[in-house]
Amino acid sequence: ILLFLKRARLDSIRHFNGIQIDRQLITALAERWRKETHCFNFREGEATITLKDVAILTHLPIDGKPVCVSDHPPEDRDGMPGWVHFIHSHLGVKVPVKGCVDATDRMPPMRKHQVSITWLTKYFRDHYESHPLTEESPEDEKERYARVYLIGMIGGVFFSKKSSNLLSCGWLRIIFSSWEEMGEYSWASACLAMIYHNLCNASLKAVREVSGAMFIVQFWVWEHMPWIAPAQRSDRDWPIDHPLRGEAYGTR
Predict the structure, then answer these.
(1) Cα(93)–Cα(84) distance, rounded to whole angstroms?
(2) Please, which of 57, 83, 171, 179 could form a disulfide with 7 given CB 3.0 to 4.6 Å?
């Protein structure tokens, strides 16, 4: 599915699945965030994450259209609710609305205008075990797996909520568009805006959790404050084109 991700200019996201977050570090940073200035207040002064930082750390495109998501459902068709038909027409799977509970998360696969990422990825994982994806697989089959992969990465990693299992169906309008059209969006700008939004929420006294792409915040701290970063591995341990090698900053 990598060829489809490259057409969408999103092939770099494959490096960011399963990254362990240093929760103590993120908590300490959230306590120093000021929503009035969108900056961290350190002893040495103010500092913040810029669009350039996000572009370097993630290799996501910064040029293009703004990422705007609308939850307004499409019209009901063929006796199915709008979003259920929308998913069925692009992925070939009918998501149950009620009467079926996900055994892992104890919630229905679709709730209002949100779809369960866990249920959807599990469905395709089970399908993959009986119908493995190969180079000889039909192109439409490869595309479906690529779009499900994007659903998991966008909804569960880059733009995740506190309940990272649910994805707003509005995202599907972008994910199910053509690959070239998907590459016309400024994904790095959307990531930065979401990071600011989540840090502003996390800085409030009553809030106990933070969501979103906090791994970008973590990498930013490691790059600019190397004395608290993990021990540097040798360059031989990193792929040549890995976006986290640090060469773009010229600091390692």
Answers:
(1) 9
(2) 179
